[in-house]
Specification:
heterodimer, A: Jelly Rolls, six-stranded antiparallel β-sheet, 24% helix, B: alpha+beta, Immunoglobulin-like, 3 helices, 9 strands
Chain lengths: 189, 183
């Protein structure tokens, strides 16, 4: 009887610890194994059959159906340029230039990894064929000064993903250093 | 003391094993759930294309969709042998990506790589020996070897603005996803 209790307890505790550890590790796999460039993180193993199992699980949960990096490079920011977690309670200005690529877009997501419901149906800012300049605001309410705006109200711990479709070879050669827009926190509620 | 040490060691081994099993199973579980949602949301049945409306907060089916893309999907099933996907060259960025049931993106091609107005991709079971015969029978441009019997064809097409929508609708009429039997 004692042996049964000994074995049962170790299996139960082991499985519970394993499930908890899996949840923790899966949620952090994207950032922990990623390539950092300022507040942006990317990974060349998205969609790859040979990617580590935990990364695959993390991507399945937070970025299902990612294209392989040979087709598209995804940079996601969970923090601003000072390393503070992005929040729907704050206003951010995103400025800079997009890397040389065929097409780019910035999309804002809520803490649940879905588009944030808003009355104006604005979820992204995408490439202006004439200019590679990036200048938009992430904030709960429309900015007083106008300009491109991504509404964040109700998103909780928000994140923003930059998609680069068919980037130039130079981008692949400098994933950690290629200039990307900065994310500056201007104010918080 | 020895008893406690072995208990802790065994707990650690069981926990490690649980992490490994969960990590390997999770993509398949999430993929199966996503396929079901997409099947309902896009009104797509096996080996037929289904198409999305412009993506907004109230019609998103899977995590982190792009609202700038028009999506088309085909849930392929290789039970009959193979599936041939036909996609037109679009007037803007378009890619065809294939995913197995483990969420692996095992094939992709974009409009810049397409040399014809209509590109045909044949999806075959991995290590299929039917390639030569298939190419002549179906005039296929590319072959994709699926690690699993079922999976997803995902077509992404950049949508610049609302004026692009009628053009996309016309392009969609040329898309086909057909099961074929190999001799």
């Amino acid at each position: 009887m004692k042996i049964l209790a000994y074995c049962t307890s170790l299996v139960l505790v082991g499985v519970m610890l394993g499930v908890a550890a899996f949840g923790f590790l899966m949620d952090r796999a994207i950032t922990a194994t990623g390539i950092q460039n300022g507040p942006w993180v990317t990974n060349t193993a998205y969609g790859d059959r040979e990617a580590p199992a935990l990364l695959k699980a993390g991507v399945a949960k937070r970025g299902l159906f990612a294209l392989k990096s040979t087709e598209t490079v995804y940079y996601t920011a969970y923090t601003d340029s000072d390393g503070q977690a992005l929040s729907d309670a704050c206003t951010y200005r995103v400025t800079g230039r997009a890397p040389a690529t065929r097409w780019w877009s910035f999309t804002l997501y809520g803490g649940d990894n879905f588009l944030i419901d808003n009355e104006v149906d604005i979820y992204s800012v995408f490439m202006d064929p004439v200019s590679m300049n990036v200048d938009f605001t992430i904030s709960p309410d429309a900015p007083a000064g106008g300009g491109d705006w991504l509404p964040s109200k109700g998103g909780g711990e928000i994140s923003v993903t930059l998609r680069l479709y068919n980037p130039e070879p130079a981008v692949y050669e400098s994933l950690t250093t290629t200039p990307l827009p900065s994310i500056v926190r201007e104010s918080c509620i | 003391m020895t008893r406690i040490f072995f208990w802790l060691l065994a707990v650690a081994i069981v926990a490690f094993g649980t992490v490994q099993v969960a990590a390997h199973k999770m993509p398949t579980i999430i993929m199966a759930g996503a396929m079901k949602k997409l099947e309902e949301g896009y009104q797509a049945s096996a080996n037929e294309f289904g198409h999305s409306d412009p993506i907004k907060a109230d019609n998103q089916r899977v995590v982190r969709p792009s609202p700038d893309l028009a999506y088309s999907i085909c849930l392929y099933d290789l039970t009959d042998g193979a599936v041939v996907v036909t996609v037109p060259k679009a007037s803007n960025y378009l890619s065809v990506a294939l995913y197995d049931m483990g969420t692996n993106n095992f094939f992709h091609i974009n409009d810049g790589e397409m040399t014809k107005d209509l590109t045909k991709i044949m999806i075959l079971p991995e290590q299929s020996a039917s390639v030569q015969a298939s190419q002549s029978d179906y005039e296929v441009d590319s072959f994709a070897f699926s690690p699993t019997k079922e999976g997803l064809v995902l077509v992404r097409r950049v949508m610049m603005d609302e004026q692009d929508w009628p053009v996309i609708q016309e392009e969609r009429k040329l898309m086909k996803c057909e099961a074929v039997k190999l001799g």
